[in-house]
Amino acid sequence: MLFLKDNWFLISIFLTLMLVLIKGRAWIGSTNISIDFLKKGLAEVQKSLEVVQDDIKKILGRLPEQKTTQSSNPIKLTDFGRDVSEHVHADVWVTENYAQVFDRAKGKEEFEIFEICKEHVNLCFTEIAEFARTVKSTSYNYGIEDDQVLIVYQIELRDYVIGKLNNEYTHDHLQTSPESSEAT
Questions:
Q1: Using CB atoms within 10 A as the burial measure, which of 32, 58, 83, 177 is most buried?
Q2: Which residues neighbour 69 within 8 Å (Cβ) at sequence distance 6 or greater?
Q3: pLDDT digits (tens, 9 = 90+) for 53-95
Q4: How many CA atoms lie within 13 A of 184 on its CB side?
Q5: For the ranges 11-20, 67-76, 108-117, 139-148, which has the lowest average pLDDT?
């Protein structure tokens, strides 16, 4: 007992160090267990995400494909159709090609103008390789049929031609109307 009484300070330091070492090893062991637990948890989450991704792909596979047009009178482009139109720069193509159908469209009803535009776009598709390549590339990239890209061109051409015809009619009407001749 005398030994304990004389060396109590050294013994308390020794016991404190032993306690710290024991607790430290326990903490390191629990940290390793926690890390292993996290790794297993992350692996399970990753597997679950893969299952969810597969389910989403299956669901999307059952959905109807996106449409470039909406059924209305007259037929119009959807938001998706406008995206396709922007992608192919249909506005540029239309301004470069409308003159080829403009004279044939004069005096026609809108549905007849649409038929003329359809014929022209389809003819370009069969006879102009670069145009056909653009259509096929776009249909591939968007996951749609060639016809859905072609109808985007057809509608854009129809709308542009009708707009030009209306402007021409208005312009001609203003020049030949009695009110405009009295004003000059």
A1: 83
A2: 75, 76, 77, 78, 81, 148, 151, 152, 155
A3: 887 777 766 666 778 888 777 889 999 999 999 999 999 999 9
A4: 7
A5: 11-20
Residue 166 parent element (H or E): helix 146-176
Phi-psi region at 111: left, alpha or beta (left = phi > 0; alpha = psi -120 to 50): alpha
Q: What is the DSSP string of 103-144?
A: HHHTT--HHHHHHHHHHHHHHHHHH-HHHHHHHHHHHHHHT-
Name the one residue in this structure whose structure tokens are 């549905």. 111
Residues 6+ apart with CB under 8 A from 75: 69, 114, 151, 155
Question: What amino acid is encoded at 24 in this protein?
Answer: G
Q: Which amino acid is at 130?
A: E
Answer yes or no: are the C-beta atoms of 97 and 124 closer than 8 Å: yes
Angle at 80 between CA 74 and CA 82, to 5 degrees: 65
* HSE-up of residue 88 (Cα within 13 Å, Cβ side): 30
